[in-house]
Amino acid sequence: MKPNVIRTLNFVHDAAEFILQHARTALAERDQFRIALAGGNTPRPIYTEFARIGRELPWDRVFFTFGDERCVPPGDPQSNFRMARESLFVLAAVPEKSIARVRGEIEPQLAAQEYQDNLDLLAAQRHEMIYRHDVILLGMGNDGHTASLFPGTAALEEKALKVVANFVPKMDSWRITFTFPLINQARHVCFLANANKNAALLETVLQGDQRYPAARVEPANGDLTWILGEA
Ligand code: 6PG
C-alpha cells in the first residue's frame, strides 16, 4: 500500500492538526471520534498540542483506546496510559468514561481478553463486525516494530484475535497489543516519526519491506499516512 507521506518542519503542530481534522470529521459524520493512542515518547508533545488546539472538542464524544500497553500498573513511568494522562487527559479534562485503559497490572492474557471483549461489545452496539477506529496512531521502533508487534514475535501472525498478549524476548516482558486485523480495520492509520528516527529504516519501511512489522500495516478500507518530522 502506498502511504501518504507528510514531511514537515512543524511536526508536533501538523500531527496535532491531523488528529483534530479527523476528530471534527468523525464527530460531524458519526457524532463520535474513536482514536487509538500510540505509546512511547514521540507522541507526548503531540498529545499536549492536541489538548490545546482541540480544547473545544466535545471530549465526552471522543473515545480513547490504546494500540498497546506495557504490563505495568497505570502509575508506572513505563505506562502508556500514564503518558497519555499526563500529556492529554488531564490537560483536556477528558472524562474517565471516554478512556478505555488496558489493565496492564493484571495477568497479560486476561488483560488482552478483557480489552478485546470491551471493543467487541462497543462494535456490536454499532452493528459492526469488528471495532472500527477513526484514527489509529502508531509509532515505529528502530527495529521496525509498531504498537507491540515486534519482529519475530507471535502476535505478528495473529489473524483472528484483535488484541493479544505478546511476549517480547528482547525485553523479556509481556505487552498487550492490537493485532494487524484490528489495526487494518481503521479508517485512518497515522504513523508519527520525528527527526530522531533512523532515516534509512524509515525509507525501507516506506518502500514496503515486509521484514519490518511497521511495513505490514495496510488498512483494508482506510488510508495510511506517515507524518515525518524533519530537522
Ligand atoms: C510503545 C509504543 C511503541 C512506540 C515505538 C516508538 O509502547 O513503546 O507503542 O510502538 O510507538 O517504540 O517509540 P518512541 O516514540 O519512544 O520512539
Structure characterization notes:
32% of the residues lie in helices and 20% in strands. It is built from six helices and nine strands. The chain has a six-stranded parallel sheet, with helices on one face. It has a three-stranded antiparallel sheet with strand order 4-7-6. Strand 8 (188-193), helix 6 and strand 9 (223-229) form a beta-alpha-beta unit. 6-phosphogluconic acid binds at residues 38-42, 67-68, 80, 139-141, 145-147.
In short:
This protein has 231 residues and is of the alpha/beta class.
What labels describe this entry?
about 230 residues, alpha/beta, Rossmann fold, 6-stranded parallel beta sheet, 3-stranded antiparallel beta sheet, globular, binds 6-phosphogluconic acid
- Helix and strand run: EHEHEEHHEEEHEHE
Distance between the termini: 27 Å
Question: If you compute it from the alpha carbons, what radius of gyration comes out, rounded to the nearest whole angstrom?
Answer: 16 Å
> So how many helices?
6
Helix content: 25-40%
CATH fold assignment: Rossmann fold
| Tally of strands | 9
Mean pLDDT: 97
Beta fraction: 15-25%
